[in-house]
Amino acid sequence: MAAERTISGPCRAWPQDSVFIREVLDRIGDKWSVLVISTLGAAPLRYSDLMASVPGISQRMLTVTLKGLERDGLLTRTAFPEVPPRVVYELTDLGRSLLSAVMALASWAAVHHGEVAENRRVHDDVGVGRRKAG
Amino acid sequence: MAAERTISGPCRAWPQDSVFIREVLDRIGDKWSVLVISTLGAAPLRYSDLMASVPGISQRMLTVTLKGLERDGLLTRTAFPEVPPRVVYELTDLGRSLLSAVMALASWAAVHHGEVAENRRVHDDVGVGRRKAG
DNA sequence: CAGAATCCCCACGGATACTG
DNA sequence: CAGTATCCGTGGGGATTCTG
Predict the structure, then answer these.
(1) Which of B29, B20, B26 lies closest to A111, judged by CA?
(2) A88: which nucleotide lies closest, measuring CA to C1'?
């Protein structure tokens, strides 16, 4: 008899992979983390440069995001004891390795976002069509 | 020449890539989408099987997530006109292509989640250390 | 079995004001 | 310049109940 209809556990092909996926998504699934990581992927930047380079981010969220990423060792914070103060953020090797994986997602999006948009349009049109036809 | 200190625009190395990244994250950055996609990556499943295979998801969120993914053409919904009803969800080619990119993230997590956890612990210890040392 | 509908909490994140 | 502190609206998502 064996398996064939044994789903039982959390999942089949990815035992605790689901846990890992959730961990990563809890980390970079927020609104700003990957934007910050991507921006720092090009070059180390100071706080004010990040504010300018990540359009729409608020001071609060930039700070919160940076602290979170620093906590996980994805970037380093270097404060120079000058006046006026200067603080530079830079990706760690770990952060850069994550950037690669994120870029894979970005590539997927670049290739398929049009298709997704089209699917969405068609799907929504069917919806209104049913209402008119019904 | 020139440049070197020209950050100006949104970002440098990824003009509208940031837009694409945000699109993907708005799609899969939620709490359940990638779990559902990953689960369906192993095999097509019916609604109740998904409930069992994605631990912790509620009926509401499974339905909402499935509808969103179907809308974007990442999976198909097939309802068999039987009683009791039977509905099977299956990834489309588009969904499977996204699964590949998601798996890249999962791999990163599988390799580095320990390192991240360690960084986090060290960082937090320094925090309490400062409080005790201060 | 496979949802739809409703209620409601709370934490993510924006705006603003203040500080070393 | 590089933050911190506070207030507060919005919506993501959980629990529960009802239906075809």
Answers:
(1) B20
(2) D2
Backbone angles phi, psi at A16, to 5 degrees: -105, 10
All residues at 6 or more sequence positions from B90 whose CB lies less than 8 Å from its CB, including other chains: B40, B44, B75, B76, B78
CB of B47 nearer than 7 A to strand C: yes
CA distances to A55, A57, B2, B51 from B56, rounded to whole Å, are 35, 32, 54, 8
Q: Summarize chain A as % helix, strand, coil (round to 5).
A: 60, 10, 30
* CB burial of residue A134 (10 Å; 0-12, 13-18, 19+): exposed
- The pair phi, psi for residue B78, each rounded to 5°, is -120, 115
Q: In whole angstroms, what is the distance from residue A9 CA to residue A69 CA?
A: 33
> Model confidence over B34-60: pLDDT tens digits?
999 999 999 999 999 999 999 999 999
A128 φ/ψ angles, rounded to the nearest 5 degrees: -70, -30
**Could you say which residues from 52 to 111 on chain A have a Cβ atom under 8 Å away from some Cβ of chain B?**
52-55, 70-74, 94, 97-98, 100-102, 104-110
Q: How confident is the model at residue A65 (pLDDT cuts 50, 70, 90)?
A: very high
A126 and chain B: CB distance < 8 Å anywhere?
no
Predicted TM-score (pTM) of this structure: 0.86
